[in-house]
Amino acid sequence: MLGWRKARTRFEGQSILFVCTGNVFRSMTAEYALRAQFGKHALYQVGSAGIDAKPGTIHPVILNRLLKKGIDPSAHTPRLLTKQLVKQHDIIIAMGLGHREFIHKRFGLKVPLFNEVSSGQETPILDLHEALPNWERDLVEAKAYIESVIDHICEAIPQLMTQLPHFAKNKA
Questions:
Q1: Cα-based angle 60, 63, 66 (whole degrees, multiple of 5)
Q2: What angle do CA 122, 155, 152 make, to 5 degrees?
Q3: Domains along the sequence of the chain with CATH
Q4: Chain segment 97-120, per-residue pLDDT in tens
Q5: Are the beta carbons of 31 and 18 closer than 8 angstroms?
């Protein structure tokens, strides 16, 4: 706990941006799970964006799973990743390998993956269509996968929080 207090004063006021594809599943879940974990005493500003975000709503399976966990993302609006957003955030975390590659090519930044920050494992969190190419044929399996990803992200947030100071200013 003492180390976390030091991090609180040292890194207060910095911002985190989670990035995925559409900004309605993985990065959005990470954003709202981290906000919920911080509560009213946020150490960081937290946001999310997608490399191909379009206007839309959160799928009911995602919304319901988050609500069951006490996380309310109903005010969320998908945002497209822009140069301005990149400049506004101190720590950028990619959810998948393609997102990390996109950020590197488009903005010249090397950013970590979510799992890399939370557990030291350089593994992506796959989108539904990446994990289950035929997901539309098995909606039960698709729902189970979506819920497992949300559970994974939410369970990883406390460890991610302890590691954030090590990833501050990753825009070098």
A1: 145
A2: 55
A3: 2-167 (3.40.50.2300)
A4: 999 999 999 999 999 999 999 999
A5: yes
